[in-house]
Design a protein that fits this description.
binds iron/sulfur cluster, TIM Barrel, 9 helices, 9-stranded mixed β-sheet, globular, 21% strand
């Protein structure tokens, strides 16, 4: 196995980072178990398991309708039963990509905003990625459940607390936006509890969970009309049929 890795590594050094061989290499390394060197690079945040990266329109929350480059990092230990990106949960099936290459891709689009999402992106050290993006004058937004410790620096933090693994206390002061997904009636209690903890100017959003949108929407409308400090967020990208 060590010999195979060595051969692959030598080949890798000669290849373009986005070549099929290179991507296959990182995927194979994931499956075979990480080498010490890769593990170190991962813990330093120099490599990250990237599930997908794409240029689109932000569909949710405060920045709805704005163009942004999305970086979706694989791996999530929260386990919401209604999750619509369950394929993100297992980090080992996503290729480890050097952050330099992620930054090059993010800089290749006209918009100067990157949204880092997951999975739960804070399962990883995001210091290197966010500082590299900010050095390129890119505004860095984060979407997190707040269940893992913060790493990295952000221009906008969207906190979306999940019942399975509530946020760490530090996030209530840092969140610029609180987005609570409404799957059932108890989620209004959950939203109110968290709305009371965030800083005064944090924007408050209720967003219907997609599979329950028809059932929950009228209740959300009534709630927001009675509690106007809250706003409605829709997964507008799904209505627009874009990623
Ligand atoms: Fe899915 Fe997000 Fe919940 Fe993780 S935190 S299970 S990615 S909805």
């Amino acid at each position: 196995m060590a010999q195979l890795r060595s051969v692959l590594a030598k080949g890798l050094a000669k290849m373009n980072i986005f070549s099929p061989f290179c991507l296959w290499y990182f995927w194979a390394m994931n499956l075979m178990g990480l080498t010490d060197q890769l593990e170190q690079q991962l813990s330093l945040g120099k490599l990250l398991p990237i599930m997908e990266q794409f240029y689109t329109i932000q569909g949710e929350g405060e920045h709805t309708g704005k163009a942004a480059y999305f970086i979706r990092i694989g791996g999530c230990d929260v386990g919401c039963h209604w999750c619509d990106v369950k394929e993100s949960w297992d980090a080992s099936i996503h290729p480890l990509i050097p952050i330099e290459d992620v930054v090059i891709q993010a800089c290749s689009v006209p918009a100067r905003t990157v949204v880092i999402t997951g999975g739960e992106p804070l399962m990883y050290n995001l210091n290197e990625l966010t500082s590299s993006l900010r050095q390129k004058d890119i505004s860095v937004h984060l979407e997190t459940s707040g269940s893992s410790a913060l790493s990295g620096r952000y221009d906008w933090i969207c906190l979306s607390p999940k019942k399975n693994m509530p946020p760490k206390e530090e996030f209530y002061e840092m969140a610029d936006e609180l987005k609570v997904i409404v799957h059932n009636r108890h989620d209004f209690v959950w939203a109110t509890e968290h709305g009371a903890k965030v800083k005064r100017n944090c924007r408050l959003y209720l967003q219907p969970e997609w599979s329950k949108r028809d059932e929950m929407m009228p209740i959300i409308v009534d709630f927001v009309m009675a509690n106007p400090e809250w706003n409605i967020s829709l997964q507008s990208h799904k209505y627009m049929n874009i990623p």
